[in-house]
Amino acid sequence: NFSEMTIPILQWRDIDTKNLIINYQINENTCFISSSLITSNLVFALKVDNQISDIYRNNTLIIVEETSNYTNNDLAIISIKNTEPSIKKIIKDGGSIFLESVNSKVPLQEYDSQNNHIFGIIRETRF
Questions:
Q1: What are the DSSP calls for the chain, one per residue?
Q2: What is the CB neighbour count within 10 angstroms for residue 75?
Q3: What is the Cα–Cα distance from 12 to 2, expressed in whole angstroms?
Q4: Residue 87 pairs with which residues in a beta bridge?
Q5: CA-to-CA distance for 112 and 3, rounded, in angstroms?
Q6: d(Cα 122, Cα 124) in Å, to the nearest integer?
Q7: Which residues contact 28 (CB under 8 A, 6 or more apart)?
Q8: Could you report the per-residue pLDDT of 79-110, keeping only the tens digit for each?
Q9: What is the pLDDT of residue 3?
């Protein structure tokens, strides 16, 4: 049984780092794509460029699930201290969670739920 769901392609500005929500409106300008990811959580796509991450080619679409269910080595959309969202790798070490930069040699940062917010986990990539 193959199922697909239609998901919106959002803008990075739709990730509200002040209020820690995905804030968007569907309108006549909203584009959609299909995904085989089936979940009851919010799923959306974002277009990546070199300013966001250099691990993806320009105009790559990433499909993101808004969830707190993540595992070691998942790539996540994260805001640190209400800064612009970025892509970080989640590293679990025992009971601790660390964030690893995918763009630079920035040292591991310990995840702090008071100052960091995970908006979602990258579940699929379209080149």
A1: ----EEEEEE-GGGEETTTTEE-----TT-EEEEE----SS-EEEEEE-TTT-SSS-TTEEEEEE--S---TT-EEEEEETTPPPEEEEEEEETTEEEEEESSS-PPPEE--TTTEEEEEEEEEEE-
A2: 21
A3: 30
A4: 77
A5: 37
A6: 6
A7: none
A8: 999 999 999 999 999 889 999 998 777 889 99
A9: 78
